[in-house]
Write a structure and sequence with these properties.
The protein has 78 residues and is mainly alpha-helical. The protein has one domain. Helix content is 63%, strand content 0%. It has 3 helices and no strands. α1 packs antiparallel against α2 and α2 packs antiparallel against α3. The protein is globular and about 35 Å long. The termini are far apart.
């Protein structure tokens, strides 16, 4: 995937309207899918982008209410 497409998808995810609702995960899924469709992303980058987004959401929720294990390490590897 080109640098330009990555930048466009990133900006679309960051700057897209985020409606307040009870099902934020579904809203983020739809936003990511719409952004990737807009730049014609297909195959593995699509899957990888959604996986990264879901891991980030999981770690964010777990940072507020630490009930589950983290996907990202607590410390950087030296």
């Amino acid at each position: 995937m080109s640098v330009h497409r990555t930048a466009i998808v990133g900006l679309a995810l960051i700057l897209g309207p985020i409606p307040a609702g009870a099902d934020v995960v579904t809203d983020w899924n739809q936003t990511a899918i719409d952004a990737m469709k807009a730049v014609n992303v297909s195959g593995n980058p699509w899957t990888r982008t959604l996986v990264i987004m879901h891991v980030s959401m999981s770690d964010t929720v777990n940072a507020v209410e630490p009930r589950f294990g983290r996907f990202t390490p607590d410390k950087r590897f030296a």
